[in-house]
Specification:
There is one protein chain. This protein is α+β, with helices and mostly antiparallel strands. The chain has one domain: 2-Layer Sandwich (YaeB-like fold), CATH 3.30.2310. Strands 1-4-3-2 form a four-stranded mixed β-sheet. The termini are far apart.
Amino acid sequence: MSDAWRWEYDPDAEHVVGGLPPHVVAEVERLARELAVLGRDATEVGAGHQLRNLTFLDVGLLYFLPVPSQQLIAVVRVTWAG
């Protein structure tokens, strides 16, 4: 079994980042990849208890759920005030 984590949008990209500017989507995906590299340590990134949130590009908020049992970072919501 691999120790590598993956990330995905939950429920899907259209629901989570649909309509956002391309540079925002690119930043969300970059951050998701970095969180996946952190693996279990991603449970300590940002604020929140199980559902974590992380500020990005000064006006965005990325909500994600680390799921250690599935080695998964689930990106569930992105807000953008830009």
